[in-house]
Amino acid sequence: MTVPHKDDIIPTMRKNKIICVILTVAILAAVSIAAPLANEGKSGLYARSIEQVLRCESDQVDIATAAIIISERWDDLVSGRQYLQQLDEMAIEIQKRTGGAVNSQTIKIMNEYLFNELGYRSVAVADNPDDLFLHTVMDRKSGYCLSLSVLYLSIGERLGLPLYGVVVPGHFFVRYDDGRIRFNIETTSKGFYADDEHYRTNFNVPNSDDRSIYLKNLNPHQTIGCFFNNLGNVYLQNENIEQALNAFEQAVHINPYLAESRTNLGNIYLRKDRVEDAINQYQLALNINSKDAKTHNNLGNAYNAKSWLSYAIQSYDNAIALDPNLADAYKNLAAIYLVQNNPEMAHIKINQALHRWPHDADL
User: Is the dihedral of CA 236, 63, 152, 138 positive or negative?
Assistant: First the structure.
């Protein structure tokens, strides 16, 4: 038997050692990649109806699952599991790039991946009902403030990031808040940072109290409640009044202090000739946000339907004071003054409106 020379043994040992190191690194990398996502085991993952989602404790809700259930209700051709799997894969890709880190720096990598590499963007005009739904956002890689934020939150919950939905009048965004570091994330601007004062100034955020949900971190149930408000508007665009009613009632039930939901529910009640219910919703909405000119105008319409004309005039005047460019309020005032046999005041209101909109055929 030939005994190997020591010079032959040492290179072989080194080679084997290198192979072992490579295998160890590969195994560790595979383990890292295969690490469970942060939402694994949540009961909300196994919900099969939105009712089941809403019965979950808030920390057990999986926002993506809830959004996909709503997508499947909207379009029965949607295969929800496909989209949830895609979200998992996106989260795993971000995990790989961060080495599993879960901190504020993860947001930079997530923004780069979503907005620059994958090309997610904000739609120019949110006038397509499909822009709300998570499956459509993922298919088209586009959406608006709420739908892009739902996508962002869906990935964040899989990574274990401390992300929250935040609502202000007419807008929705995401906030990172780990108790020490807090900043806002504009999903319509590639994750751009904007401070709270930006939203107070540009979105007329009402003065908050303990009950208000504006500019506060929302829990998953409250985020879903905001989604229901927009879902009601989508059904309304499609003239599905009963589904719109159900969505707005659900939105109000979840977020009783979201003024927009109460206004929208009031609009449906007025359309269904439930005038007193409409008045109640408008008044509750204005208790929350007294600066909403359109709600004042709609309340005037409800008073008008009850022939409470002096109350209607006051509501229309309030609307114009808040928004001098609200054409409907001028028209509504002129119509009431004509009913009251006061053509002089009607003429004044029409002229005020014509000064702003000289080509308005109705005027």
Answer: negative
